[in-house]
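Hey, can you fold this one?
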Amino acid sequence: MVATLPDFYIRKVSLDDLKYAQQAADIFNAAYGVNNHGWASVKKIVNNYYTTKEEIENYIRESVAGNLIQLFLFERDAQGNDKAVAGTLTIESKCGCSDGDLPEGDGMLGRFSVDLSYHSKGLGRQLMQVGLDEMKKANYSVCSILVFENRTELIQWYKKLGFVDTMERSPFHPPEGTTIIDSVPFALLKKKL
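Sure. Predicted structure:
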C-alpha cells in the first residue's frame, strides 16, 4: 500500500475488488468520454471509446493471475476503508491498440484514468509513480505509453514525468464498436526505468 494523500491510496487489485469493476469502468468512461470537456477526453478523435464492467473484471483476474498489473486508486472512508475507486492504471507486456509487439523488457501503460472531480490534485502523478515503481519490481526496463499525437498538453505532462517522444507513430486500432472521427496516429513515448 502506498499513501498518496490522506484520503487516498493506491494498490494492486485483488479478487475482492471485482465488486469495484463497475466503478472503475465508469471512471474510465467519464475520463475519456463524450461528456468530458477536459484535457483527457478523446471525443474529437473517436466515438464510443469505452470499457465495460466485464473488461475491468477480466483485467482484475489477469492481474491476480500475474499476467499484467492492474492498479486502483482508492478514496478512503472516515474509518480508513476503501470507499470508492478514484483512478485506474494497467501495465501490460503487449498492446492491442497498435501495430507490433513490445520489445523484451518493455511494459505498456494503459487505461490510465482519474475521477474527473479529482483532476489537477496530483493524484494522476501519484498513480503514475506507483505504476512506474511496480514496473521496476516486475523487472521491466522501459515504460511505454501511446498518446494521440494531437494531445499536446498530455504529451507535455508525460515529458515532465521523464518520458521521451520517440517520434515513432502508429495507427490506432479501435476496439469493436469504436469509430474513428479524426485519423490521428499514436505517438510512442518511453521512459527508462
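The chain has one domain: 2-145. Let me know if you want another pass with a different chain boundary.
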